[in-house]
């Protein structure tokens, strides 16, 4: 969510911001909205609990679905509601809780034509105690490349080859151990190794400068 303050000629300040769902309403949420008018709060709460459980990695049991799908809610309607609520919650928790204010969140729900009786449950989900669990699960489940765990290097000297009897060329062999347990090995010339050392030192120096700024702290 982005917030832009615009100052007028008379000194007044207007706030122009983007909804937490983005500039365009996702089709999943659009498909859900038309079914919310006929939905009671108890059923909405049940679906929301199923959605939160699924985000946290819990399996959806057939019993929980049977208790929701009744005569007034078909499987097709349930699919629209589930997908819409799931998308809405995920869009909301994408934004850090420190950036998304509760008052703006409720205002966005009103603009999306989400009935007011459902606001309390959604606010509790996005700003309540379950938020920390959702954040932790999303971070752990986020796809990422393996990181560097350990780095070894050694200098090898090529004494001779099949063509020349005396070469004496130095080279550096690098062994990188990654967080997934794999080991990547490659070779480079001494000049390239010195260039790598210089670039790493430059990056570390820039990081130290950034850490000294009060507005930015680099954490491990």
From TrEMBL:
Pfam families named in the record: COMM_domain, COMM_HN
GO CC annotations on file: nucleus
InterPro entries: COMM, COMMD5
Domain COMM: 147-211
Family listed: Belongs to the COMM domain-containing protein 5 family.
This protein's name: COMM domain-containing protein 5
């Amino acid at each position: 969510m982005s917030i832009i303050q615009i100052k007028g000629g008379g000194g007044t300040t207007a706030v122009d911001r983007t909804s937490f769902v983005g500039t365009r309403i996702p089709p999943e949420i659009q498909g859900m909205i038309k079914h919310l008018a006929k939905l009671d709060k108890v059923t909405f709460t049940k679906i929301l609990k199923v959605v939160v459980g699924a985000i946290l990695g819990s399996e959806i049991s057939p019993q929980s679905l049977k208790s929701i799908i009744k005569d007034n809610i078909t499987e097709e309607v349930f699919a629209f509601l589930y997908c819409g609520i799931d998308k809405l919650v995920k869009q909301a928790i994408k934004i850090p809780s420190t950036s998304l204010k509760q008052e703006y969140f409720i205002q966005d729900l009103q603009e999306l034509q989400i009935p007011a009786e459902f606001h309390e449950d959604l606010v509790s989900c996005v700003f309540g105690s379950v938020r920390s669990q959702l954040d932790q699960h999303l971070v752990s489940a986020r796809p990422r490349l393996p990181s560097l765990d350990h780095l070894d290097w050694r200098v090898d000297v090529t004494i001779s080859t099949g063509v020349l009897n005396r070469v004496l060329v130095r080279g550096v062999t690098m062994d990188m151990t990654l967080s997934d347990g794999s080991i990547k090995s490659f070779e480079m010339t001494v000049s390239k190794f010195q260039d790598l050392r210089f670039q790493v030192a430059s990056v570390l120096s820039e990081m130290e400068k950034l850490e000294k700024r009060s507005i930015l702290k680099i954490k491990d």
